[in-house]
Amino acid sequence: MPIINLAGCKVTPEKSLPAPEKILSGHPVQETENLYTDAKEKVFVGYWSSDIGKWSIDCTGDEEYCHILYGKVCLTDDADGKKVTFVEGDQFIIPEGFKGTWETIEKCKKLYFITNVG
């Protein structure tokens, strides 16, 4: 299988909103530029951005690596209420099974790598 060079990928961003029942505040318009999906649709790589807002997330079945390229976000864990804020340059993993909230405090963009483990 050959190496996949993502440098030449040109993708039209897809705009969306979280499901209405998940939005807790704001109008977080999101843009996704998925650069790669494997043949089994278990791995996804690309860029994602969001306007200011807050919504519920449920990562059942997925793990996600995030690298914040710009902006400021805060994730809150439903299990213990712990809040963690991330800014430009920060990298983190949202583990499979995480339930909580994602809040975009300042318009943000991230590089993502999602693995469907479910």
TrEMBL record:
Source organism superkingdom: Bacteria
(S)-ureidoglycine aminohydrolase cupin domain: residues covered: 43-112
InterPro entries, alphabetized: RmlC-like_jellyroll (IPR014710), RmlC_Cupin_sf (IPR011051), UGlyAH_Cupin_dom (IPR008579)
Leader peptide range in chain numbering: none
PANTHER family referenced in this protein's UniProt entry, alphabetically: (S)-UREIDOGLYCINE AMINOHYDROLASE CUPIN DOMAIN-CONTAINING PROTEIN, CYTOPLASMIC PROTEIN-RELATED
Protein name: Cupin domain-containing protein
Species the sequence originates in: Kordiimonas pumila
Lineage of origin: Bacteria, Pseudomonadati, Pseudomonadota, Alphaproteobacteria, Kordiimonadales
